[in-house]
Amino acid sequence: MTAMIDLKNVSYRYPVSDDSVLKNISFSIEKGKFTAIIGNNGSGKTTLCNTIRGFVPHFYKGDLDGEVIIDNTKITDYQLGQLGEKVGYVFQNPFIQVSGVKDNVFEEVAYGLENLGVPVEEIKVRVEEVLKLVKIEYLRDKNPFELSGGQRQRVALASIIVMDPEILVIDEPTSQLDPIGTQQIFEIIRLMKERGKTIVLVEHKMDLIAEYADDLLVMHKGELVMQGPVRDVLADPAFEKYQIQYPHVTEIALQLQKSGIPLSFLPIRDEELAEALNRTGVAVHD
Amino acid sequence: MKQNILLQLHPMTKFYFTLFLFAIVLILPGYLFSFALFPVLLLIALFAGVLKEFLNIVLKALLSVLVIIFIMQMLFYPGENVLWGWGIFEIKQEGLLYGLLLTSRILAIGSAFILFFRITEVRDFVKSLEDIGLPPMGAYVVLSTLQIIPEMRRQANTIMEAQKTRGVETEGSVLVRAKAFIPTLTPLILSSIAGTEERAITLESRAFSAPVKKTSLHQLTKSNIDRALPIIFALIVIGLLVWRFFF
Ligand SMILES: Nc1ncnc2c1ncn2[C@@H]1O[C@H](COP(=O)(O)OP(=O)(O)OP(=O)(O)O)[C@@H](O)[C@H]1O
Ligand SMILES: [Mg+2]
After folding, report:
1. How far is the CA of A47 from the centre of ligand 2 (A)?
2. Which residues, given as ranges, of chain B have pLDDT below 50?
3. B148, A100: Cβ pair inside 8 Å?
4. What residue segments make up the domains of chain A, in order of their start?
């Protein structure tokens, strides 16, 4: 498998800050993988996304050390405009992701395709499809400035996936969504994965990460402290010390284990709990 | 509303028409023609179904200016033929004529432009400018400004509300309201500045600077009338110029 995103010893400091926000980060993400980035507030997740998308250093100046390689090309060798088609980036803040020149949602979603020079007939087909996929057909004639936070988040996601980028970087897309909406977004991301997209997702909802993601990157104070398949990272006792929530079922299982009930393995999805308890075996985690 | 032939004209045709009026008002001598133009504009507005808004804006924006200019010219324009005097004030014939000429022209030209913006969507106008070579960034600036003004008004209201809950007096005389409004400016301007950076990244995430030629869902069509009218306008203007300067 080829690496789609490859970071080698990347450090970055914002122009005005004294301290590095990213510290010597190295990892590599294969094409078609779904990787979740987790970490507490201020740990550098968004900055890492900005780096993958090339906003660092093309837009945010400051000191960037190390190498960022996207699809076998160094990020500094791309022009900013070229990356738009390759890496789709949905921001953390849905309130700023409005083009500001379109007066309905349909045109808002179409905006990126217009900029990419896609023929008008094709634009219409693709926008229709994405509106349906993200379940915002009913918003098509609404003004993008007059949407709720959750609706804006859906429009923002739609506006990016309609452009069909190979890599999707999505920063907390469900912060304004209800549980059903959140589940739907994860389903859409799963679909994107099935279409062969490489996905980087920042999320705090561990239950869903355990259910959907392949790999995990754990950020802590600007350092990448753990990485690997979701199950391996969660099973590593070191995970506990970063004060990040476990999936609920994992939390319960660990409690049970503490009170003397042995687990055959550490469950990370709800349906695994019974299996983990049925078989008696060696205790994992300590 | 879109069925109307006038409204369906290409924005550039409407714009050329406005320039055409501008030109003939300046070329033709005297005030009679310029004043006569106004009823014509009213008729056009009526036909386009925008008479009420058109009149409203003309009255609000132009009337007071016209009255002031007229009085100033009448009283202070140099001349000999005094028509009427009262103390130091004298109304002279030259002033009266010049006042009429100036106001007739301002009325004609001003209302022609007001009419233009009544019968043309700014969005369409900007698109037509883009079609003839306005760079996308320029078009973006114009359109986003138009969208952001109501957004900023909303934001200003929010800030005002916030100040009210903190006990700042926001209602009452003009002075009281002005006093309450000034402190809202700082957060408003600051947030707009912070907004521009985010705006730039947002645009970038939507491939604004992709190195390709953009397409557009919004297409303007030119009919034969749209092709013929500008030529007719140009011919008339040239004809008038020739008549004015060679005969
Ligand atoms: N534009 C900026 N200029 C200077 N410093 C910044 C900027 N953006 C973020 N930082 C700093 O970088 C650090 C990491 O911020 P970042 O936004 O990457 O964190 P995060 O992990 O995404 O947090 P959250 O979970 O709250 O979204 C923070 O200490 C923050 O103060
Ligand atoms: Mg963040």
Report:
1. 7
2. 1-2
3. yes
4. 3-100+149-239, 246-286
Bridge-based pairing state of the strands A198-202 and A215-220: unpaired
Which pTM value belongs to this model? Answer: 0.82
Question: Which of B147, B195, B202 is facing A97, going by the closest CB pair?
Answer: B202
In angstroms and rounded to an integer, the radius of gyration of the C-alpha atoms of chain B is: 24
Q: Taking a C-beta distance cutoff of 8 angstroms, is the pair A60, A231 a contact?
A: no
**Phi and psi angles of residue A277, each rounded to the nearest 5 degrees, phi first:** -90, -35
User: Could you report the predicted ipTM of this complex, rounded to two decimals?
Assistant: 0.84
Q: Please tell me the predicted confidence (pLDDT) of residue B1.
A: 44
Query: Nearest-CA distance from A85 to chain B in Å?
Result: 7
Architecture label for domain A3-100+149-239: 3-Layer(aba) Sandwich (3.40)
What is the Cα–Cα distance from B181 to B170, expressed in whole angstroms? 8
The verdict on whether omega for the bond into residue A144 sits within 30 degrees of 0, i.e. cis, is no
Cβ distance A94 to A156 under 8 Å? yes
Residue of the CA atom closest to atom 3 of ligand 1: A14
**How far is residue B122's CA from residue B113's CA, in Å, rounded to a whole number?**
13
B210–A117 CB contact, under 8 Å: yes
pLDDT in tens, B30-47: 888 899 999 999 999 999
**pLDDT less than 50: residues of chain A:** none
